[in-house]
Amino acid sequence: MYPFITIPSYGLMMAIALIAAILLSYYRVKKAKLDLDVFSSLAIIAIACGLLGGYLLYIFVTYPISKIIGCIGDGSFEVFKKGGLVFYGAIIGGVLSALIYLKVKKQKFFDYAAAIVPAIPLAHAIGRVGCFLAGCCYGKVCDTPISVIYTNPVGGAPTGVPVFPIQLVESACNLVVFAILLIYTGREIKKGSVIFLYMILYGIERFILEYFRADEIRGIFLGISTSQWISIALIVGGIVGFVLMYMHEKKKKLAAVPAPEPSAEEEKNETEEKTEE
What we know:
Blueprint: H1 9-31, H2 36-62, H3 65-73, H4 87-104, H5 109-116, H6 119-134, E1 148-149, E2 162-163, H7 166-185, H8 194-209, E3 220-221, E4 224-225, H9 226-256, H10 264-276
Helix pairs in contact: 1-2, 1-6, 2-4, 6-7, 7-8, 8-9
């Protein structure tokens, strides 16, 4: 008989992260008076597609394209039998599936984004704790007051040497981003542009923190990792999105302003002109 059940810390933290994100999003969707049935289906679809996207991006940044095509061609599918998750892949898969689903349901994407997006950095912060416990997404070897030494990691971290706990640093940064997004959306949860703010904040955060990571499976091109290239795209896309939404909102406000009523003198002049005609 086994008196204790061993639960993988990584899987446990991922489960807690998803539950926290769903509960917070549900509360905010309800507070924003959006369709809860639509949200329930959206959550299932976005999570499933997010996991798929994270897995596929892991495969593509870990193995060369030739090897991926080769194992598909010979029917072995070898590279697909080993895997992990890349956060950016999960985000891309989740957001794209949400866009498509809400378009089909004829719902406003930015309304749901205002309610749901702040939950993303919260879930990410919890998930990074799982990475720390598993020893994946580890930092560079360096001896600092906060460095840790792994003895039996399952995520590939080097053993017996001090490494920088980049996972916990990123977790803390994500909590800061989470707080900023909550403040930005405000009590009424109406600012759909929060998704662009998140793109900018996390893009900057991830680009900088990548310099402290040591797991080379992320892929390097022109001296910059895959995640840093995606970070650059996020920052640029976030800025462009912010500007476009600001211009759109400004145009709507100008259109909503009623035309000023004519003064008594203007009405008199108009009456006189009509009389002369």
